[in-house]
């Protein structure tokens, strides 16, 4: 009887070790669930970015307005007959002098 109790206590100790510390433990499960949440949030962010990029590509393929807007903002291009004006605001150092 004493040997049976000893075997059962050792078995219980081993199972408790696996439950709290070993592979597939409660702590590892909690960590994996947190990583799943982070991955899902990253996936949502990347899907929104991909949708915006797909819309921009479609707009650039079909419309000249998007191409013109990009040329004006990124390349500083102007149409013939237009005058380019650049406004430079005073910084704090310039205002005090």
UniProtKB/TrEMBL annotation:
Ranges that cross the membrane: none
Membrane topology label: Single-pass type II membrane protein
Keywords noted in UniProt: Cell cycle, Cell division, Cell inner membrane, Cell membrane, Coiled coil, Membrane, Transmembrane, Transmembrane helix
Location in or out of the cell: Cell inner membrane
Family annotation (NCBIfam families): PRK00888.1
Subunit structure: Part of a complex composed of FtsB, FtsL and FtsQ.
Protein role: Essential cell division protein. May link together the upstream cell division proteins, which are predominantly cytoplasmic, with the downstream cell division proteins, which are predominantly periplasmic.
Family the entry assigns: Belongs to the FtsB family.
Stated name of the protein: Cell division protein FtsB
């Amino acid at each position: 009887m004493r040997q049976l109790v000893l075997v059962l206590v050792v078995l219980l100790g081993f199972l408790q070790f696996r439950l709290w510390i070993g592979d597939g433990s409660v702590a590892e499960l909690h960590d994996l669930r947190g990583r799943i949440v982070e991955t899902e949030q990253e996936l949502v962010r990347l899907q929104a970015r991909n949708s915006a990029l797909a819309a921009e590509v479609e707009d650039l393929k079909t419309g000249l307005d998007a191409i013109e807007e990009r040329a004006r903002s990124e390349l500083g291009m102007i149409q013939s007959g237009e005058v380019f004006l650049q406004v430079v605001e005073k910084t704090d150092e310039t205002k005090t002098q």
